[in-house]
Amino acid sequence: MDQTFLAIVFGPCDKCSKEKPLRPVSVKSEQRSYCSLCVEMGLKLHGLIPPGALLINRYLPGQSFDEGLSNHQLFAVHQVAERVEALGQFVMKTRRTLKGHGNKVLCMDWCKDKRRIVSSSQDGKVIVWDSFTTNKEHAVTMPCTWVMACAYAPSGCAIACGGLDNKCSVYPLTFEKNENMAAKKKSVAMHTNYLSACSFTNSDMQILTASGDGTCALWDVESGQLLQSFHGHGADVLCLDLAPSETGNTFVSGGCDKKAMVWDMRSGQCVQSFETHDSDINSVRYYPSGDAFASGSDDATCRLYDLRADREVAIYSKESIIFGASSVDFSLSGRLLFAGYNDYTINVWDVLKGSRVSILFGHENRVSTLRVSPDGTAFCSGSWDHTLRVSA
Amino acid sequence: QMERMIVSMQDPDMGIKMRNQRLLITVIPHAMTGNDIVEWLIQKYGISEEGECPVTGSWHQGVTGAAEPPRSPQSLSAESLHLGNLIVKHGYIYPLKDPRSLVLRADESPYRFQTPYFWTSTKWPATELDYGRCRRAAGTNTGTDPFPAPLSATASLAAIYLAKKNIRKQGDLIEHEKDNYNLLHKRINHTWDFVVMQAREQLRAAKQRRRGDRIVIDCQEQAYWLVNRPPPGAPNVLEQGPERRNCHTTRVQLTKNMDYYKREIEYCRKAMARTRVKSSICLEGYIKFNEQYVPHDPIMSGCLPSNPWITDDTTYWAMNAPTVTNPTKLRVERWGFNFSELINDPLGRAQLLEFLKKEFSAENLSFWEACEELRYGEQSRIAEIVDSIYQQFLAPGATRWVNIDSKTMERTLEGIKTPHRYVMDDAQMHIYMLMKKDSYPRFLKSDLYKNLLAEAIIPPETKKRVFPFMRKQRHSSPSPALLLPAGDAEERSRSPSTAPVPEEES
């Protein structure tokens, strides 16, 4: 816990009588002791704080800003973000619709060339598209259904995918007429339960996987050897993301045990863990600077966790959103958080202000996957309505 | 969670006002119009924007801050219409006028709340006919076999429902209902008489009710079956993904032995000792990052000449290709943000190399690149790469000897005896920091960089086309998969889109 510089008195609040840390407050020139919640409410009533502005402990001008004392007051983001300009009207439209999957689209990934994508679906089909022209370039049928994970190699020369077959397979992409793509397939990862997520590291030769058996693992593609395994989740691991940091040695994973854990790839140890969600974490994504990450969960909220402060710093939720978030991603500057939900919509959140900027309709079934393109010009969303949409 | 919303909708004070609605000539009690539903949702949604949530009592939900842009009435109602629609699709509210289609219309059409008995979350008790409630088998729901075996309570009730319909409509059922009816008949042949008897009983009892009640019950049932047995082609709202948290046997168990606890203790110790940065400082960090990067974010600030997805013009990509002779101004500016931006951009890295050559420290960059190759390379080549790095950069008298402090050098040389992927990490980090703290600031002040900035281009914005309906030709680009080192790329790069798209079975 950080140092606090005020001597805090603990006791029953003069207003709500709850046992809380108290602040001295003068009301009608009388000294009282209120808990922080009552202070905020009082100030709001007197118009000293504009409605909607959220404070933590900074309720009297001139007083120093110090850390929140309890877990209730988490919206530090907004306070500092008061200085940031509000966003204007936001218009995004679907620019491309990719049709061709015969069943629910479960996962997708962008190629580094900013226009190609690979997508996988429930019927076992994995398709590589040039989403700009909407042409299909490659197609593979996996021997299993529910291909829940797919990834594009950094070089653009291979793809990886897996699902209910408990394996992750790497397919080199080839345009040769007589080549059977499946012939060159490499089975890389072996888990004891379904594969939920996979991602290449900085090169084509290493793959990181997450599985329903509660572990993540790092594999060498060429030999299929297990390089490192990561144990610690108490339930299925549903998602992972690699850190963009300079040292490139950590990644974050989220699971059904409501925990998001940060791992050191070299030692296999968990470095940090966060457990504030109320339900399964479906998706995690690093903030572009690498200092924080966002998570989307079945409890219908998205949350932002800061790694250096080691805590949750923002919650993105609304009463009218009652369906879980299946997939999240940041825009290039990290100002916007795109989140796809199981109620068929995509909500766009202002990361700094904590408010929703826009809601995008268009899909006819739940949005299962969402990724922003590598250069940030557009984002692609895949859905159970068999289509993928690129919006800008 | 939907149910919480439904319950609050039905709240006598704050909920939707229900009146007797007219449906043709009959009066239906306790109903509401589609419009009412949408309005109530807007209202409630409006409430949650204020900041205080009477329902949950916490500060978490729905706080937006004054900065949320004013929502037009249309967008508010689009969202509430969508939400209302979902509620209807999940069977919590059903329409009285057009019971076949589970859609919410924001007009005067009447709706009613579905009885909790029929809620999708209600678990149906077992009957003699069944062996317990069968869950839909994950992943194998092919759609042609809608009823899991053995027979469940819902199947027998479905049979009764369809039998009733059959009798009433005298055999004139819809196609898919006929199919289901026949399937069920085959399945529970032995108790079919029972089913028909039940159906007849229910019909007779119904005749004795008032017309209003009858309509209501009919619609209720209809809606329930539409949700639970959707006609072919309609999306099934009850579908879930593959089961999670099943199969404990396949879970990799964390054996709670000595090792485990030792690790836990170590983790907790590290966690306590870790320096935590104040949230306020982290947040300042976000704001700074935001200020720096927002002009570079195409979604926030647009991109010049134009966003290829919007105008179908790929000039933006051509101008920002990894290797290009004239980089754009934004790109060159970005190299000044921090060292990793410079080194991760191939063009930036090349410029850095040029600069380092002038300073006679180019071997640093080459060493760093070689270490990266080691870290992310193939397992089988590790020994080979380590050796090559040693020969080139670390051996005494090496041609491109790098300047590392003696301690790190000692450790690295020791580690080379048992080469592994991370053996060069310390040395690599040292050199990286050297470049970052020493060479990089000089690079930014150098003439080389200043010239780059001056010569960098700002692409002009594409003029809006006069005839916007003439869509530009969308050209395909060569796939990266074609860029093989052997130089085959030249031959095949012309039109990959005409290459056959083979459908592969594996």
TrEMBL record, chain A:
<keyword id="KW-0853">WD repeat</keyword>
<dbReference type="GO" id="GO:0007165">
    <property type="term" value="P:signal transduction"/>
</dbReference>
<keyword id="KW-0807">Transducer</keyword>
<feature type="repeat" description="WD">
    <location>
        <begin position="360"/>
        <end position="392"/>
    </location>
</feature>
<protein>
    <submittedName>
        <fullName>GNB5 protein</fullName>
    </submittedName>
</protein>
<dbReference type="InterPro" id="IPR036322">
    <property type="entry name" value="WD40_repeat_dom_sf"/>
</dbReference>
<feature type="repeat" description="WD">
    <location>
        <begin position="230"/>
        <end position="273"/>
    </location>
</feature>
<dbReference type="InterPro" id="IPR001680">
    <property type="entry name" value="WD40_rpt"/>
</dbReference>
<dbReference type="InterPro" id="IPR001632">
    <property type="entry name" value="WD40_G-protein_beta-like"/>
</dbReference>
<feature type="repeat" description="WD">
    <location>
        <begin position="327"/>
        <end position="359"/>
    </location>
</feature>
<comment type="similarity">
    <text>Belongs to the WD repeat G protein beta family.</text>
</comment>
<feature type="repeat" description="WD">
    <location>
        <begin position="188"/>
        <end position="229"/>
    </location>
</feature>
<dbReference type="Pfam" id="PF25391">
    <property type="entry name" value="WD40_Gbeta"/>
</dbReference>
<dbReference type="InterPro" id="IPR016346">
    <property type="entry name" value="G-protein_beta_1-5"/>
</dbReference>
<feature type="repeat" description="WD">
    <location>
        <begin position="274"/>
        <end position="315"/>
    </location>
</feature>
<dbReference type="InterPro" id="IPR015943">
    <property type="entry name" value="WD40/YVTN_repeat-like_dom_sf"/>
</dbReference>
<dbReference type="InterPro" id="IPR019775">
    <property type="entry name" value="WD40_repeat_CS"/>
</dbReference>
<keyword id="KW-0677">Repeat</keyword>
<dbReference type="InterPro" id="IPR020472">
    <property type="entry name" value="WD40_PAC1"/>
</dbReference>
<feature type="repeat" description="WD">
    <location>
        <begin position="98"/>
        <end position="130"/>
    </location>
</feature>
Automatic annotation (TrEMBL), chain B:
<dbReference type="Pfam" id="PF18148">
    <property type="entry name" value="RGS_DHEX"/>
</dbReference>
<dbReference type="InterPro" id="IPR016137">
    <property type="entry name" value="RGS"/>
</dbReference>
<feature type="region of interest" description="Disordered">
    <location>
        <begin position="470"/>
        <end position="506"/>
    </location>
</feature>
<dbReference type="GO" id="GO:0007186">
    <property type="term" value="P:G protein-coupled receptor signaling pathway"/>
</dbReference>
<feature type="domain" description="RGS">
    <location>
        <begin position="338"/>
        <end position="453"/>
    </location>
</feature>
<dbReference type="GO" id="GO:0043005">
    <property type="term" value="C:neuron projection"/>
</dbReference>
<protein>
    <submittedName>
        <fullName>RGS11 protein</fullName>
    </submittedName>
</protein>
<dbReference type="GO" id="GO:0005886">
    <property type="term" value="C:plasma membrane"/>
</dbReference>
<dbReference type="InterPro" id="IPR044926">
    <property type="entry name" value="RGS_subdomain_2"/>
</dbReference>
<dbReference type="InterPro" id="IPR040759">
    <property type="entry name" value="RGS_DHEX"/>
</dbReference>
<dbReference type="GO" id="GO:0035556">
    <property type="term" value="P:intracellular signal transduction"/>
</dbReference>
<feature type="domain" description="DEP">
    <location>
        <begin position="12"/>
        <end position="115"/>
    </location>
</feature>
<dbReference type="GO" id="GO:0005096">
    <property type="term" value="F:GTPase activator activity"/>
</dbReference>
<dbReference type="InterPro" id="IPR036284">
    <property type="entry name" value="GGL_sf"/>
</dbReference>
<dbReference type="InterPro" id="IPR036305">
    <property type="entry name" value="RGS_sf"/>
</dbReference>
<dbReference type="InterPro" id="IPR047017">
    <property type="entry name" value="RGS6/7/9/11_DHEX_sf"/>
</dbReference>
<dbReference type="Pfam" id="PF00631">
    <property type="entry name" value="G-gamma"/>
</dbReference>
<dbReference type="GO" id="GO:0008277">
    <property type="term" value="P:regulation of G protein-coupled receptor signaling pathway"/>
</dbReference>
<dbReference type="InterPro" id="IPR015898">
    <property type="entry name" value="G-protein_gamma-like_dom"/>
</dbReference>
<dbReference type="InterPro" id="IPR047016">
    <property type="entry name" value="RGS6/7/9/11"/>
</dbReference>
<dbReference type="InterPro" id="IPR036390">
    <property type="entry name" value="WH_DNA-bd_sf"/>
</dbReference>
<dbReference type="GO" id="GO:0009968">
    <property type="term" value="P:negative regulation of signal transduction"/>
</dbReference>
